[in-house]
Design a protein that fits this description.
Layout (H helix, E strand, L loop, with lengths): L9 E7 L5 H9 L17 E7 L3 E7 L10 H12 L5 E7 L3 H17 L4 E6 L1 H4 L7 H12 L9 E3 L8 H11 L19 E5 L13 H12 L3 E5 L4 H7 L6 E4 L4 H7 L6 E3 H9 L2 H10 L8 E5 L11 H14 L4 E5 L13 E4 L7 H13 L4 E3 H8 L3 H5 L3 H4 L3
Parallel strand pairs: 1-3, 1-4, 4-5, 5-6, 7-8, 7-9, 9-10, 11-12, 11-13, 13-14
Antiparallel strand pairs: 2-3
Length: about 425
């Protein structure tokens, strides 16, 4: 449960006003004290992520947010904005109301519904603290439901689940879990990373350079995830470094179905791999799996039009220690300057921080995104395209730099609409 990467978890955002019992509800859903609970309003001041398992959905991330009615001078507005920033990144939204003050919570509920519908995000409504309105433990559920529907039913669009519950007593928690599971059934990845590329029983050669960015005893996450994906698909694979790729290919009785390389080794690997063997990279696979490969290809073409002085945003989804020859801060800027012949200015954002205002940049180059969810990556792509700013990713840009873009995209020609 704890080791599943966040990027492979369904993200459930918990939203509501202060003291609605969001943190208590997270603890009740998880069956353990994950979040700090206090009677003091505003205990949760920043979005806080909690990992748990919600079967049959599997591993999920619950995101506890600050109250949407935080009116503390200065910081209150900042906290509300940070909470609302989490909503479009959520795969599933759980709105929490306080049963003792439903009318006061109604404006916040309306805003949550509006934003969730705007982004096409499934929504579940929980009315917490029903034990304070109906102290008798044997109060019929139908009576509680009628009471809840009378107060908020006219504010809800059709088919949004409404769950009266008590995080304190546990009543309604099972029903809340069931509603979340039902709302999120379609969210789990139905495709695999290597779907359509390596058939069951097929063979892949994975080229994984061992350098300062890969500490001893560890591999980077995309490499590990591709290996697991191949195992799940019943495929075979061989792992090599660029220096032993030729030996590996010569030792195979049949050519592999594909060679998948770290994008940084594209130039060397392309020179060794026969033209008849499909070639792509981990980064391009993740562009297809999590993002929008067609949008990235469109974005990389636009790099030809860059001018001197243009600013480029390098967007990474993790916060790794910067190495002396770091790909985001050193290699990509160098390769892009070499390819375009332009004097460009580079900025960088890391982790889940992505600028709200994208206007300063002429183009965005996104990493593979293994640490964030597909929704978050696609949100970045949509925001860039809505502003008319080209966006591409590391693997696509590096293949373009070394003149092998068409080759590494050829395995996906049909889905890209290419001849």
């Amino acid at each position: 449960m704890q080791t599943t990467p966040r990027g492979e978890r369904i993200q459930i955002g918990i939203f509501g006003n202060r003291n609605a019992g969001k943190s208590s509800l997270i603890n009740a859903l998880a069956g353990q004290a994950l979040a700090i609970v206090s009677e003091k309003p505003g205990t949760t001041t920043d979005p806080v992520s909690k990992a748990m398992e919600l079967l049959p959905l599997g591993p999920v991330t619950l995101v506890d947010t600050a109250g949407l009615d935080d009116d503390e001078p200065g910081l209150g507005g900042v906290r509300v904005r940070r909470s609302l920033d989490e909503l479009p990144k959520s795969d599933l939204v759980l709105a929490v109301l306080d049963a003792t003050r439903i009318d006061a919570d109604a404006p916040g509920l309306s805003e949550i519904i509006r934003r969730a519908q705007e982004h096409g995000i499934p929504l579940v409504i929980a009315i917490n603290k029903i034990d304070l309105v109906f102290p008798a433990a044997d109060t019929p559920l139908q009576r509680i439901m009628s009471w809840a529907e009378e107060r908020v039913g006219d504010r809800l669009p059709a088919k949004i689940p409404l769950i009266p519950l008590s995080a304190q007593t546990g009543r309604g928690i099972v029903q809340c879990k069931e509603a979340l599971i039902e709302a999120g059934r379609h969210l789990a990845h139905e495709s695999s990373i290597t779907e359509g590329l390596i058939p069951p029983g097929g063979m892949a050669v994975l080229v994984m350079p061992i350098d300062s960015a890969a500490p001893k005893g560890r591999l980077i996450l995309p490499q590990v995830q591709v290996m697991r994906d191949l195992l799940d698909r019943g495929a075979l694979f061989a792992g090599v470094v660029p220096e032993t790729l030729g030996i590996c290919l010569a030792s195979l009785s049949h050519p592999p179905d594909c060679v998948i390389t770290d994008s940084q080794a594209f130039e060397a690997v392309a020179a060794i791999t026969p033209e008849s063997v499909p070639l792509t990279s981990f980064s391009i696979l993740f562009a297809r799996y999590k993002g929008d490969l067609a949008a990235y290809v469109e974005g990389v073409r636009a790099l030809e039009t860059l001018r001197d002085g243009d600013r480029i945003l390098i967007a990474e989804s993790c916060t790794h220690h910067v190495q002396c020859d770091d790909i985001g801060t050193v290699k990509i800027p160098r390769w892009l300057r070499e390819k375009t012949g332009r004097q460009l200015v580079f900025d960088k954002c890391a982790g889940r921080d992505f600028p709200e205002d994208l206007s300063p940049w002429a183009a965005i180059i996104q990493c593979g995104g293994c640490m964030v969810t597909p929704r978050e990556i696609r949100l970045r792509i949509a925001r860039a395209r809505n502003k008319g700013i080209p966006i591409t990713n590391y693997g696509v840009m590096i293949a373009w730099r070394f003149g092998i873009l068409e080759r590494v995209l050829s395995p996906f020609a049909a889905e890209l609409g290419q001849a």
